[in-house]
Amino acid sequence: MPVEIAPETVLKHLQKGCLNPIYLFHGPDLDAVRSMPFLSSNRLVIVRRADHMSAPDLAVLIPYVEKPVDTACLVLVAQKPDFRLKFFKRIRQLGHSVNFSELSDRQAIPWIKTEAREIGLNIKREACRHLHEIIGNRSRTLHTELEKLYLRHGSKEVGVSEIKELSIFSRMYTIFELMDEISQRRKAESLSILNRFTRQTDA
Asked: Domain range for residue 177?
């Protein structure tokens, strides 16, 4: 079964100093790649627009994918990789595929609960649901808010009231996020953020 890595997992690899030799970054939220802090003694090689390479050119790299050099980290960035191709299919099978797509509504709450558990945060399910309603489906933003909650409350139980308290401190960020989306002329994203911000204000 294909395995996908969350962007937050890559950050954990960085923090522990144990990078994988290969990563395939893909998905619609690839702007997040620009803020990934690669600080390592290993050589970092980034191949952009890997999905624009021909199948024969990609096939040449398969032996390297099978036996990569342990002193280098190869990052392939692709907007829409074709996982029917042997090269991309093999990378995913080996567990090197990092998906920057947003979570689905169905995935979000279980994901929040799991991430909270991993960082030591004791959060109620109703609080997970409320956090999702405020933040939306972006995993990196959700992860950041969970870390804020942990820094503020530690291992204490976190309920809806603590999430509402957090949202007060998050409103300024949401305004700037909205301004950014409007400046990029992304209508759907702008309306989504505006609706979330309105719900926060009414809370």
From this structure: 105-202
CB 164 within 8 A of CB 203: yes
Q: DSSP code of 203?
A: -
The two tokens of residue 175 are: 């305004």
97: β partners: 4, 24
- Give the tens place of pLDDT for each residue, 33-68: 444 445 556 677 888 899 999 999 899 889 888 888
Bridge pairing between strands 72-78 and 122-123: unpaired
- Cα–Cα nearest to 12, from 170, 154, 140, 151: 140
95 Cβ partners below 8 Å, 6+ apart?
3, 5, 20
**Beta carbons within 8 Å of 82's beta carbon, 6+ residues apart:** 51, 88
Of 99, 132, 149, which one is at a domain's C-terminal end?
99
Q: Which residues does residue 59 pair with via DSSP β-bridges, in sequence order?
A: none
CATH code at 45?
3.40.50.300
The β-bridge relationship of strands 4-5 and 97-99 is parallel
At 86-121, the pLDDT tens digits run: 999 999 998 888 888 888 889 999 999 999 999 999
Integer Cα distance of 100 and 71 in angstroms: 25
The answer for residues whose C-beta is within 8 angstroms of residue 130's C-beta and 6 or more apart is 160, 163, 164
Q: Residues, the chain, total?
A: 203
